[in-house]
Amino acid sequence: MDSSSSRDHNSDGKEPYRLKLGDELNGTVVKPLGGSRYQIKCRHAPNGFSVTLHTLRSEEVEEGHHSTFWVAKIVPVRGEILVREGDFGRLPISPSMAPRYLTAIRGLLSDDAPSGDALGEAKAMVGRIAKQNQADWLTVWRLLGEPGAGDCRRLVSLIDELKRVIKEEPDQITGIQGLIREEFGGALTSATRRLTKLIDGTSSRD
After folding, report:
1. Residue 106 has pLDDT above 90, yes or no
2. In angstroms, rounded to a whole number, what is the distance separating the alpha carbons of residues 144 and 129?
3. pTM of the predicted structure, to 2 decimals
4. Distance (Å, whole) CA 111 – CA 100
5. Where residue 93 falls among pLDDT bands split at 50, 70, 90?
6. What is the CATH number of the domain that holds 75?
7. CA–CA separation, 51 vs 25, rounded Å?
8. Domain annotation covers residue 90
9. What is the β-pairing status of strands 5-9 and 37-41?
10. Is residue 76 predicted with pLDDT exceeding 80?
């Protein structure tokens, strides 16, 4: 099981309860855990999982405060759920970033060798999901088909390999492009359609 979802059985043992990145959880702040971390009591978290808030606004967090948080990370092997509050991380893709993302993804799907800039942007798109340091990282994760951590590492590895063979072994470019399309083509093609629609919608409002 990867870090993008968790599963728990209901008390009656029937259908499993699923939790994934971006899902909202109502909870109450129990106590500080040091730094910007706080223990959260959450009745609807999967059985056996602890819930921890990582906040950018420690000065606004008080014990006993009840709020709605959203899931930023799930670590099944440790039974941990990391949540955040506010909209940073799940904001929409901005009009300035959408064309850059579209160019990057089209570069991965192209029969021609993509530019270094396009490959760098594509790698940055995937990287922001792991780093969670950009305002739209959750939105990008959804755009790319909600990949697991292993899928993200695999795609970054293929991007790095494509960049390498473009410089050193151009006869291998087609093979790496084929692997990208085989393993990620469906999600990337869907992402191009959604970005094109987003860009067209933005242009029509201008």
Report:
1. yes
2. 10
3. 0.87
4. 19
5. very high
6. 2.40.50.140
7. 10
8. no
9. unpaired
10. yes
Least confident of 9-18, 56-65, 149-158: 9-18
DSSP string over 95-141: TTTHHHHHHHHHHHH-SSPPPHHHHHHHHHHHHHHHH--STTHHHHH
Residue 134 lies in a domain: yes
Q: Could you tell me if 107 and 199 lie in one domain?
A: yes
DSSP 31-99: EEEETTEEEEE-TTSPTT-EEEEE-S-GGG--TT-EEEEEEEEEEGGGTEEEEE-SSTTSPPPPTTTHH
User: Do the Cβ atoms of 136 and 92 come closer than 8 Å?
Assistant: yes
Q: Kindly state the percentage of the chain with pLDDT values over 90.
A: 81
Give buried/exposed letters for 38-56 (b at 16+ CB in 10 A, else e): bbbebeebbeebbbbbbbe
Same domain, 75 and 122: no
Q: Are residues 60 and 108 in the same domain?
A: no
Number of domains in the chain: 2
Q: Which domain holds residue 62?
A: 5-84
Average pLDDT in the 56-83 region? 93
Query: What pLDDT, on a 0 to 100 scale, did the predictor assign at position 17?
Result: 52
Residue 5 contacts residue 19 (beta carbons within 8 Å)? yes
Beta-ladder partners of 147: none
Is position 93 within any domain? no
Contact (CB, 8 A) for 205 and 164: no
